[in-house]
Amino acid sequence: GEHVYGSRTQQNMYDSLKACNYFELANHSFSHAFRNNFNKFYSEPDSAVQDFERSADSLHFSTGIVRTPGRNIWRTNDIKSTDIKLSTTTADSLYRKGFTAVGWDVEWHFNDAQRLVQTDSEMVNMIDSAFAKKRTKTADHLVLLAHDRTFKTTEDSASLRRFIVRLKKREDFEFNVISKYPNLVKDTLNSK
User: Fold this and answer.
1) Which of 39, 123, 139, 191 is the most buried (most CB within 10 A)?
2) Residues of the chain where predicted confidence (pLDDT) is lower than 50
3) Which of 158, 119, 88, 126 is nearest to 68 (CA)?
């Protein structure tokens, strides 16, 4: 949230993404957990909720869909899951305040140099495995976490393109925006 208005370039990028039909923007907090101070952020539930509310207000989000920084937290109508127990109180506070937290089923990892760890072929195999072993939060649905900063090089960007093309060629895959995920609370910010 705080980076959107950090420069004219960032604000223009945000405005372009918001206007584009291929993207759906959702809340990832205002300060990114007090600038990656995850232990402090998740140990102060009221401050964490205020951080998400500040982002929602400043960026004019119309839904309460969030992805928590640094944690794989789910709080939906059907799913209650927290990867690190110390984050539970904050996750529950966000949900009580009308936010729907969506985590991920598979993550495309990166190294310290912000380069992809898995190849596009390995990612397709990981996704196939997650479905085959029923390791997704919702049957026949999968949320993939991939950080945009890892696709800056031509090689990594090409890997992302190959990954998408491979899956789109298969009839058993469909890409969609997160608000289409089953049983998410609709217009949760309006229900506060």
Assistant:
1) 123
2) 187-192
3) 88
